[in-house]
Write a structure and sequence with these properties.
Number of helices: 3
Shape: globular
CATH topology: Alpha-D-Glucose-1,6-Bisphosphate, Chain A, domain 4
Helix content: 25-40%
Distance between the termini: 36 Å
Largest sheet: 7 strands, antiparallel
CATH superfamily: START domain
Number of strands: 7
Length: about 140
Amino acid sequence: MATIEVEVEINAEIDKVWEIVSDIDNEPKFWKGTKEVRNISKEGNIVNREVTIAFRDQKCLQEVKIQPKEKIEAKFIKGIIDGKKIITLIPKDSKTILSTYWDIKLTGMMGMFTGMIKKHIKSGTEQAMQSIKKEIES
């Protein structure tokens, strides 16, 4: 498994950060590795969806658990990626620490490339976090 952790401090209250981050349908706007999102079902704070990722336009199924103003946990349940992505919001005075943690691997024969994609995912995560920060602070 590849683990990746990226944090950014955003000069805004948690409510404002949550408003952007919790709009999970808008994910492709910030996360360039996510090309398309299609919701399949929603029950309470759990959303099941199909995500098309930039890597060979592969489709993955995710179960997304939303804990308001705290975290969003996306579990990859079917597809080329196995594992999870957790986005956490931590209030700090009048600012917010936005943290993204990945614990993933590629499935099947692609598993041997997990290490190679780690750098790519980390870079994409850093870019996404900066885009979110810029959107909120502007």
